[in-house]
Structure formats: structure tokens, C-alpha cells
Design brief:
Elements lengths: L1 H8 L6 E12 L12 E12 L4 H11 L3 H6 L3 E7 L1
Parallel strand pairs: 2-3
Antiparallel strand pairs: 1-2
Helix pairs in contact: 1-2
């Protein structure tokens, strides 16, 4: 929703957003950039598909916006979330 709203405000040609998530548990030692040092952490791999004739710069910016959405910010302290564009 955040990505679509951002693109709409800028009148970018975003035609759709699909997000695929995969959840797993990892050892905290395997995540150097994580904030928490619990024994096991949640890892969420997020694959984002952006539909429409977007430029590479627009796609990169929308990935940045996706990583700043309220849900992402809520989950980040207790999980290692890795987002990428498909």
C-alpha cells in the first residue's frame, strides 16, 4: 500500500505490486547487522514484483520506500528482513 501510494503521488506508471514472503529461523550469530542478539531470529525474505514501465531509478526508489513502510519498521527490531526486486 505504501509503495502504491508513493507511486500514485508522483504519477509513476506503477500497474501493480506483488510481494512474496518466505519465513525461516536463523541463529543470531549468522546476522551481523541485526539489532537483537537472541539465540534465534526470524528471517523474512521479501521478493517484490513491480508491474508497469518503470525506470530503474523508479524501481530502486520504490524498493527504498517498501523498506520504510510501517509494517517493515514494526517487524525489523525482532527480525532480519531482506527485500529485493524480482
Amino acid at each position: 500500500m505504501t509503495v502504491a501510494l508513493y507511486a500514485r503521488r508522483r504519477q509513476w506508471p506503477l500497474e501493480g505490486v506483488t510481494v512474496r514472503l518466505q519465513h525461516s529461523k536463523i541463529h543470531a550469530a549468522d546476522c551481523a547487522e541485526c539489532e537483537t542478539r537472541e539465540v534465534k531470529l526470524d528471517r523474512i525474505d521479501s521478493e517484490i514484483v513491480l508491474g508497469g514501465p518503470l525506470t530503474q531509478e523508479q524501481r530502486a526508489r520504490l524498493l527504498e520506500i517498501a523498506e520504510r513502510c510501517p509494517v517493515h519498521r514494526t517487524l525489523t527490531p525482532g527480525a532480519d528482513i531482506r527485500s529485493r526486486l524480482a
